[in-house]
Amino acid sequence: xxxxxxxxxxxxxxxxxxxxxxxxxxxxxxxxxxxxxxxxxxxxxxxxxxxxxxxxxxxxxxxxxxxxxxxxxxxxxxxxxxxxxxxxxxxxxxxxxxxxxxxxxxxxxxxxxxxxxxxxxxxxxxxxxxxxxxxxxxxxxxxxxxxxxxxxxxxxxxxxxxxxxxxxxxxxxxxxxxx
Length: 179
Prior knowledge:
The chain is mainly α. It is 60% helix and 4% strand. The termini are far apart.
C-alpha cells in the first residue's frame, strides 16, 4: 500500500451515516484535508496552550460543578484512549460490540488533580503519538470498516475525526472558560 493511498483514505470526511448525530459537533471542528496530519499538528497547539499555563491553574474550576483544568486534560487522555481502542478493534475487523464509557464516572474515579499539569500534558502527548501511529499504519479498507460502540455503528474514519474534533473542542473550552 502506498503512502498516497493511505493519505487518500484519511482525507475523506466521514458521511453522516458513519457516526451518531451527537458527534457532528466534534467532526465539524476538523478542517478539510488529511485527518492524520491534523492529529499530528493540533497537538502542538494544545501542548503550547498547556505549557503556557502556570501550575497554579491546574486545579482551577470556572464553576463549582465543573472539572478542573487537570480533569479536562485527563478527560481528553481517557477519551482518546477509548476512541482509539474502538478504532483499533474495528480496523482489525473485530465485530464484537464495544460498550460505552461514562465520562463523568471516569473523571470522578481518577486522581488527575494529584498530578502536575505538565505530567498530564506529557501523557496526553504520548497518547496522541500512539494514536497517530495507529492511524498512519492503516490501509484504505481499515478506514471504512465499522463496528458497534455504545450501541451505535461508527466507522474507523469517523473515530479519527471524533478524536481530532474532541481535542479541538476542549482546547476551545479551556481558552474560553479557564483563562
